[in-house]
What we know:
By secondary structure, the protein is an alpha/beta fold. The chain has helices spanning 2-9, 13-20, 25-29, 38-50, 67-84, 106-122, 137-150, 165-175, 197-214, 225-238, 255-263, 279-288, 292-301; strands at residues 54-59, 92-95, 127-129, 154-159, 179-182, 219-221, 246-250, 268-274. The protein contains 13 helices and 8 strands. Helix 1 runs antiparallel to helix 12, helix 8 packs parallel to helix 9 (197-214) and helix 9 runs parallel beside helix 10. The chain has an 8-stranded parallel barrel, surrounded by 7 helices. Helix 10 (225-238) links the parallel strand 6 and strand 7. Dihydroflavine-adenine dinucleotide binds next to strand 4, strand 7 and helix 12.
Amino acid sequence: MLRSFFLFLSQQRTLRRWFETSPLSGKLTKRFVAGQRLEDALAVAQRLHAEKILTTLDRLGENVTTIAEAAVARDNYVAGLQKLIPLNIGGTVSIKLTQFGLDFSVDACLENVRPLVAIAKAGGSRIEIDMESSEYTDRTLEVVRRLHQEFGCVRSVIQAYLKRTAGDIDSMCQAGIPVRLCKGAYDEPETVALASKAAVDANYVAQTKVLLDRGAYPAIATHDEKMIAATVDHVKARGIRPDQFEFQMLYGIRRDLQARLVQQGYRLRLYVPYGEAWYPYFMRRLAERPANVFFLVRNLVRK
Length: 303
Ligand code: FDA
């Protein structure tokens, strides 16, 4: 109920404009967002590197309304990647294809993304392609497949809550495309998504095992201790080394668990968002855990 409420709020444009331009926005978001500028995100990435944590940078934004806006998003990402690569900290960037023009056409989007992927390839980095709501799944996977054929340095995100997921994971494994498996963060109808948390969790564990056994360097993206324990059990049983996969988590969430995994010798990459268009991302984090509203209030009252 609260989850749907926050997901509904995440799509309200007037609220979004109000919050994003509010003088309180820095205080509101500092737990989950690295800052408004690229420099803030690079500083966080370097600090994490010193703590043996890898980074994937996300310049916040989605659903551009003109091709010109998509080109601006691409240029911002290019600038970010060009500063990230020389830091030599194994960083990648994560993008949303609706920010690169997917609403116009697959070809327009591909044209925009290619220069970024080419820079990643030349610099030994990777582009991680986030998965948005289910209306975009087919088109996103088509872009991923074409970029994989052309460049090879992309990772696809697959959401365990979708009923189609086993088939998508199988085809990603067959094509040798690395996958980040997450549970899924959008409000989806029961026609396409599993209805209960128990079913999503069971699918998550089943697909994690498929990826660990057959996938190309999978990323297990979750803060759920049960999912993590199932992963650890499986890799131990199969003799899969810690350098053959990575865990991924979101910046600011379950920092205790993050530290524990690193201490146990596992690879961990944090998804580090930055930029001014933080509202939809932030609302999805509240939807996942409405108790995060308390962090928010605490940050607001702190000097
Ligand atoms: P679950 O929601 O069951 O939470 C398990 C536990 O984790 C909670 O009990 C709580 O302790 C903690 N937790 C989870 N979320 C929290 C929050 N917001 N604040 C505080 N604690 C929290 N989704 C998507 O649709 N497309 C995408 O491309 C991505 N990309 C992505 C990248 C990475 C690196 C991560 C970690 C996640 C995503 N996601 C995503 C989001 C994902 O789908 C999912 O919504 C969240 O990860 C929450 O699911 P959990 O697996 O953590 O489990």
